[in-house]
Amino acid sequence: MNTDVTTARPPAEVALSARAIRGAQRRELALNLGVNLVAPTALFYGLRAAGVDQWWALFLSAVPPVVKSIASVIRRGKVDALGLFTLSILALSVLTSFLSGSPRFMLAKDGWLTGAAGIWILGTLARKPFIHQFVRSVSPAEAAEKADINWRDSPTYRHVLRVVTAVWGVGLLADAGVRVVLAYSLPVDRVPLISTLQYVVLYFALEVFSRVYLRRSSVRAQVTAESGVVWGKK
Question: Is the pTM of this model over 0.85?
Fold first, then answer.
């Protein structure tokens, strides 16, 4: 068992590291919500207010997430499995946008791509689950190293991350089905706002579940005992 990263450091340094990790994750969350949800919705309704056609308003409102994903890859200087999947989904979204001039198809397309994301997330259960990959991608190098040690040495860590990943995958599949139904049943101009609110509710429900499930003291203690690495806030 590797114990190079342990509680040997002073408590104050450990606490500072934990705060830095949580701060980085909060900033990533705020950026994701702002660029992937708030900006596209605001842009769509701004363009519609300016008289832009529904199809073009939907197409142009998808630009901020694309720009963010490309900038993220350039910043990291590499494309990991998570980044490659994200870029693939965005490229597929752009390409399929030109298959039809129907705004409803554009809206339904988002549902199908969300479903594809859910299926991909469930597919990662066979190897390193999505949640583990995501935590590593938004964490400083030291925290990513701890996650790798926990993954290697702690069966409990592997189990709880697979459970959370499965819940996220199923949640996105359910969200996808609702999105497709909304795309073909509601007035087009109402769908972006309703879909955004729907995703916010789903995201925070999944986030709360994940935090409560992963931060149980019994789980943290078991992971630490198995890997020798302190996991979570003490």
Answer: no
